[in-house]
Design brief:
CATH topology of chain A: L-amino peptidase D-ALA esterase/amidase
Helix content of chain A: 10-25%
Structural class of chain A: alpha+beta
Largest sheet of chain A: 7 strands, mixed
Strand content of chain A: 25-35%
Largest interface: A-B, 50 and 50 residues
Order of helices and strands of chain A: EEEHEEHEHEEEEHEHEEEHEEH
Oligomer: homotetramer
Number of strands of chain A: 16
Number of domains of chain A: 1
Number of helices of chain A: 7
């Protein structure tokens, strides 16, 4: 069940209709969950910035590296050129090469791309190796292509799905989470949507309530067992007309939302944010006769509401990933429990929150 | 009165003895507060990494730019060479040049520096122009030299002092704040100290309690009056033996603490973190016969407790700056109220915190 | 006399009419040379991106740090916001604070700026302390304001003028140099202009001819006397409609031109490039009613000719600074000889170049 | 035949004994050349920083992005942690995923790595799609493992081998090139070795002689045919005890050498430099009981000779790649001619160089 169905709110801004990254018009998300036998607990999540051929119609994009202990594919070209030319794939750490290869296959499937000889596949990851036989590299190119094909623009399955199938956050079962914010009309009415693959640690806070501390389950509470390592992949979409420079600034603000959940960006964390703008007028044609392009650009001083929006949506997406995930057993008999929602709700009540 | 005297705690780690940046051995802090007539409300705060001639014995250092709408002097040389060779001065935006010039004077005062012809003065700032006649540039070189001379290693005056004299945070009177954390002995027992000059906005949270929202005083609550702009200068000191690369990573984590106070790093914010290590064995002699230096370096995978320490200490230093500041009137009859501590404490109680 | 008057050409592209940064329409350059007594050999050079109030009509801009052993003021705000709001001042290392303060004065002189309380002064420097009594800080605010006032859009004095009065390059007298390139009409016909303050070392090459080696005057040829340290400030102007991201890429290419003169970007060098676009349609109004701005942006794949232009113009500007400088004596009886043009021309002839 | 055998020298410093990256003790290089039928012209080159298990004994490392239009795998983790934990693989653009996957296989082959669940494979590339059927992705994991296995510490095959099999530079056949420099004993006697995969354009210069211009084969000389796009991967090894921060500075100087060959770092270029130090005392154990490590670090002010060394060695390695490559025909009947050595030597003579 959803956080807001329990009466818990994050922040002060309005969500958009689905409270999901798919509130940004044109964005589609698809999952391919891979659960087999005792030890395969992994998967793939695909984010498509628009429904068309993204190689031919690239979108402005940026990457911000919160902490770079990770294997994100494709970052330097995004940074240099300021655009994204494939769907974004999330998967497990050791399946990044397979997913990157599958994105090349995907790109080559389009007839208009038949002469393309350079593709920049973008693949993020977190490490699900505690529950999943990650060394077995059980993700295939077919799984990746299926996730892209499955992508839809409506509400998104969260928790133990796709790339979140085997992930862990704050010692509980993590996974995929999403949320959105909509700016007031007189600030442009733009939507910011966030999707996370949560797999990190720290001292869990939910809407400011010290859940981790109350449950005595947090980094440094038990030094042997509670490594804060892991990672968080964060995808940010907006329909606001931002070019790469301001998308990078937007991406950077997602870290603020992560901080409010109690994440600490530990040494071993691979925390990356990829942000893109779907504004149609600013798409970048792969081929074009003109030397210049007319763009409509949001000014620097109109950005603060967007910064707050991504901050709030990231916080909520991470918390959603915890609320939606379920207890999972996997490799070597390991079990990771879901967030104990009843206890959490009681604590929320004790701390003056929610509908308790 | 101090936050902790009201029974409010931030985070899960222990503070060091003074709960101040001066808990890091050798660090000294000095203020020069400048209040004159109706409209001069500004000042200078100096942080000395060690009591000696810092030009001759530089310390490893790094800068992280949270948001670069600011005028920090000295950042590129710190980044390139990984060291700091002057005290750090904080003041108002338009007095950065004067303070930088004064740091050159200060450096030239040392006899051993008599042949020095290049100095990298490091000066941070926030804009106190709402309460202070900032265009008048009322800070003199003498003020700056006085702040350095005043520097002491014991407890630090907070709130409306030095560079915090005229600053504003979350719509309340801000100023100088400080806090510290000490790692458990079996994690090295290192100290991390933080000092902030708070002058920014967002949606105030104190230990997770939504104070800004409850007081209906937050960014977007009243779009005309509550600009989130402004800035936060954050100085981080540690005795852990970190070189520049890991000091930059440490600096970056201060932003997580800022986020937990409700800061949003708005477009107009100049949020800079300067971190340095006081570990004696790693100081960098300006002159030296040897080509190489033996260093003791903390390994990457021992950093996470330090990351959490700086996160918590930054959050607490910012909240301290609010608790310690007092209502101030200044330029054009402007008045900024202090945090209404009684109301805040009631709200803390309502949300299950503090000694209420 | 000019390089090209000796029949020496750099590169394969055409220069614009003045072969100077002032070929970019609207750009003005002014000098204030300060020579007094035996030991004052310094000055100020001002570059104005357009003739109007630049604070109110900012230009897109970027900074690239080749090597950051320098004291450039204003870099982080340019990087964050992508624009420049003051003229650029070049001077000596220890006069950066004075020049920054003068830029605040300059900005405040405009009636439209009467409510401005935040200014980002941009000041670059190199260290002229071998010939100049740099510790004396003989540059005053009046000198800086005079350089701005002197700025003209026609041909530029080079060599021992303004900020180049006391600088040294490759062991010879360096100084101010400038050059330009014009793209073919079918590539947009854009102009790229470069101005340098040369003060660095390495192994001098002129149009590929190993002058430094032939004259036995180069880094490592005589380890005691030929420090390669020093710095090069490089200002790049273009009328091509580039936003900050691509201006940074353009700035980065100036380093290639520096490399072709034999510069090595030594440890002690402060090599900074500031690039800005004068394209009127992309100026950024300080105040504006609209949230968005229509821009015309040159596409990534039209940039390579500009990259080559800045590369060639930087190489030529540095060589021009050497050809135009004259022997100078200064502090402590130090003398730095000018490039021995006759010997150089003979060597050029020996290596198949020039009109010999 | 070798450049120096023709009497042509680059720069002023001494080469080490092999004039190859393998002059750095412990470094090994292996090739796997893949030529099949009419259209497969590609391959793999592996660089091993030391002969042991590099995952268990990581080396300090850094990446510098000259221009990021490329698909380098592994960069963000190197930047964050400052180390390298796999051999470096070079191959073609679309085979990066395969090579990355093979590096995971390689790492898993070691018994001590049997519990490893996270590996950061480092793979660079350039695009050989003009001569090679790059869309066919003909590089297999076996090819990659063979290149690693083939790695030797003696002299290196250059030109059309390994990852250089199908590449093009300045319109001529490019490929693999290598060179080295040795510092004078009184500057530490360190070795710097460089290996390049040349595949880029511009205006070719050889030791300053304008070969491209003389042969009328350069960027902008014929706009339709001579795209400067393409890329250059540059690997820098040194036995000097540098940590990551100074390795990044060293890497950055390789671009200066590239510039001196006439490279322009065009928009479409993927120019990446990876630098590592082999100094045994600074290796980073994957597992270790101690929190701190004693290191010996070369000081900042001892770096300039290394900067000049990497500059010269890069220039020479690129020119070597051209001299060693041979005419190659491939995909679609395309033929790329080798550098016309006889004509080049004549031109070198005309311009006062070489033994002519």
């Amino acid at each position: 069940q959803n956080l807001r169905q329990y009466g818990i709110e994050i922040g002060v801004m309005e969500t958009d209709s689905l409270n999901a990254i798919t509130d940004v018009a044109g964005v589609k998300v698809g999952h391919r969950t891979i659960i087999k036998g005792d030890s395969i607990r992994t998967g793939v999540t695909a984010i498509r910035p628009h429904p068309g051929n993204i190689f031919q119609q690239k979108v402005p994009a940026a990457v911000y590296v919160g902490n770079g202990f990770g294997k994100l594919a494709g970052s330097t070209q995004i940074e240099e050129l300021g655009n994204l030319e494939t769907p974004i794939i999330l998967t497990n750490t050791l399946s990044v090469p397979t997913a990157a290869d599958a994105l090349i296959d995907y790109t080559f499937q389009f007839r208009e791309n038949r002469n393309v000889r350079s593709v920049n596949p973008v693949v993020g990851e977190t490490n699900d190796g505690y529950l999943n036989d990650i060394r077995g590299r059980h993700v295939s190119k077919e799984h990746v292509l299926a996730a892209i094909k499955n992508a839809k623009s409506d509400s998104i399955k969260q928790g133990n799905v796709g790339a979140g199938t085997g992930t862990i956050a704050f010692g509980f079962k993590g996974g995929i989470g999403t949320a959105s914010r909509k700016l007031p009309a007189d600030m442009g009415g733009y939507t910011v949507g966030v999707l996370v693959q949560s797999n990190f640690g720290g001292v869990l806070q939910i809407s400011g309530v010290p859940i981790g501390k109350e449950l005595n389950k947090y980094y440094l509470s038990d030094r042997l067992n509670e490594s804060p390592d892991g990672s968080c992949m964060i995808i940010v979409a907006t329909d606001a007309p931002l070019a790469a420079r301001n998308l990078e600034r937007l991406a950077k603000r997602a870290v603020l939302g992560l901080a409010k959940t109690g994440g600490i960006a530990s040494n071993g964390s691979g925390d990356y944010i990829i942000a893109f703008s779907t504004a149609k007028e600013n798409r970048i044609s792969h081929q074009s006769a003109n030397r210049t392009q007319e763009k409509t650009i949001l000014k620097n001083n109109a950005l603060s509401p967007l910064f707050m929006a991504v901050n709030e949506a990231t916080e909520e997406a991470i918390i959603n990933s915890l609320f939606q995930a379920q207890t999972m057993s996997g490799r070597n008999g390991h079990t990771i429990n879901e967030l104990p929602v009843d206890s959490v709700l009681k604590l929320m009540g004790k701390y003056g929150r929610g509908s308790q």
